[in-house]
Design brief:
globular, Nucleotidyltransferase, domain 5, five-stranded mixed beta sheet, alpha/beta, 2 domains, 9 helices, about 325 residues
């Protein structure tokens, strides 16, 4: 990291698998440290100790605010006594954890919080694949599925925040017999045809693990289920993406997360979305246009293979409250 003078900002991407912490002001002056997500006490303790090391008042460098881009669901109502809490998450042990409050109390500096996908959208708008856009979506496809983004220049908020991972999609007739989906809230009713589940329940990393007996990164070319698994995954991602395009009319859709690192998956999704749209939108009436519209995130650390969209978005959140 370059020597930074003046104010520094902290960023936390709080994920179900790891917490990525950073300190700096942007992509060119960023110190990044990942921590495994275990228990709240252990994980948050490691995060606090990381920032305490740098939260020392000096003449030329000062940590002034921290932004958090977190898995959820979250309470983001600033009038609520539970603002900054992780609420009814499926992540074991993390329900009703006052994430923002604990970090604020431990470090005694302002803390802002939003969803991990809204944070990633902010990072991509500031420095990445959404620069210059006012309406776009960021979807992360990993352990779970989440979506967020910006509409007419504002982060998506409302009743709570977007839960794009729980839109309903039809269960593919080629899916593994008996698989009802991994979401405990939205199981498929296999007595009905085709049966509907939620996007996360049918296409997340957890669903792939439950369906095929191994995580996505281990379903490799040469495996007996390889073609079937990844074609099914591309189908499910394409259907969900198509629904979001038609509902929100974004200027671009960014597809991130660990699943999207699978070779050739993005192109397969692009081609399936092209067929689903069937030239309905003039702006998306060719594969060339769709390939520039459905894209990978631009912010990634090539050395560590860590996506920086979320933690850089958290830096933006921190800047906004200081």
């Amino acid at each position: 990291m370059k020597k930074i003078s003046g104010n520094m900002y902290g960023g936390i991407e709080a994920g179900g698998t790891k917490f990525i912490c950073a300190i700096g002001t942007g992509p060119t002056d960023l110190l990044v440290k990942p921590f495994e997500t275990t228990t709240p006490q252990k994980t948050i303790g490691e995060v606090v100790n990381f920032f305490k090391h740098y939260a020392i008042e000096e003449a030329d460098r000062r940590l002034v605010a921290i932004g958090i881009a977190s898995f959820g669901p979250l309470d983001l109502n600033k009038e609520s006594p539970r603002y900054g809490y992780i609420t009814n998450t499926p992540k074991p042990g993390w329900t009703n954890i006052n994430l923002a409050g604990i970090i604020n109390a431990a470090l005694d500096i302002p803390v802002a919080i939003d969803t991990d996908v809204n944070g990633a959208a902010l990072g991509e708008q500031e420095w990445g694949a959404a620069q210059g856009l006012k309406t776009f979506i960021y979807v992360t496809l990993g352990t779970g599925i989440g979506g967020g983004g910006i509409i007419n220049g504002d982060l998506m908020h409302g009743l709570i925040h977007p839960e794009m991972g729980h839109i309903r999609i039809p269960r593919d007739y080629k899916d593994k017999p008996g698989f009802k989906g991994s979401c405990k809230f939205h199981k498929c009713d296999l007595r009905k045809s085709p049966g509907y589940g939620c996007w996360e329940g049918l296409a997340s990393g957890v669903s792939m693990q439950q369906r095929w007996g191994k995580p996505p990164e281990e379903i490799l070319e040469g495996d007996k289920d390889y073609n079937r698994a990844w074609n099914l995954e591309a189908n499910y991602i394409a259907i969900g993406t198509y629904n979001l395009i038609c509902t929100l009319s974004p200027q671009r859709v960014i597809l991130g997360g660990g699943i999207m690192r699978h070779p050739n998956l993005l192109e397969a999704i692009q081609r399936k979305v092209e067929k689903l749209l069937n030239k309905y939108f003039p702006a998306l009436d060719s594969f060339e246009k769709i390939s520039n519209y459905l894209v990978h995130p631009a912010l990634e650390d090539a050395k560590s293979n860590i996506s920086l969209s979320g933690v850089l978005g958290a830096i933006v959140l921190a800047k906004r409250i200081h």
